Amino acid sequence: VQLVESGGGLVQSGGSLRLSCAASGRTFSGNGLGWFRQAPGKEREFVAAFSWSGGRTYYGDSVKGRFTILRDNAKSTVYLQMTDLKPEDAAVYYCAFTPYDLHPTRYSRPDSYDYWGQGTQVTVSS
């Protein structure tokens, strides 16, 4: 499985961006897809995840109500719609994929995922 993120860039505080994660090599159906982010000097942070088998979405506390994870099965692409961006949202954003069904408590853990994209930079100016 190859994952390629795109859509990052520079945005003003309060603005919006939509990140994309395109997959090749395997369909997403029946598996889990997560978004994480990592700012300089900080640990990788859970942002959002989607479970195809359970049809559930999960969000990190810091992005609830502002970010939405969306998917397009036909295009094997998952999106992260980000609104009301804040300077603290600035980071490299990664998408990750697991071929396994996870317990709900594991979607937020980076070590639950087997495949990762290269990341896309999001910068938010104040």
Structural write-up:
The chain is mostly beta strands and 126 residues long. It has no helices and 11 strands. The protein has strands spanning 2-6, 9-12, 17-24, 32-38, 45-51, 56-59, 67-72, 77-82, 91-98, 115-116, 120-125. The strands form 2 sheets. Strands 2, 4, 5, 6, 9, 10 and 11 form a 7-stranded mixed sheet that branches. The mean pLDDT is 92.
Give me some keywords for this one.
126 residues, 0% helix, globular
| Total count of strands | 11
The largest β sheet comes out as: 7 strands, mixed
**What is the tally of helical segments?**
0
Secondary-structure-derived class: mainly beta
Q: Which series of helices and strands comes N to C?
A: EEEEEEEEEEE
Distance between the termini: 37 Å
* Parts with pLDDT < 50 across at least 5 consecutive residues: none
Quote the beta fraction.
over 45%
* Gross morphology: globular
Percent helix: under 10%
Rg, Cα atoms, Å: 13 Å
What is the mean pLDDT?
92
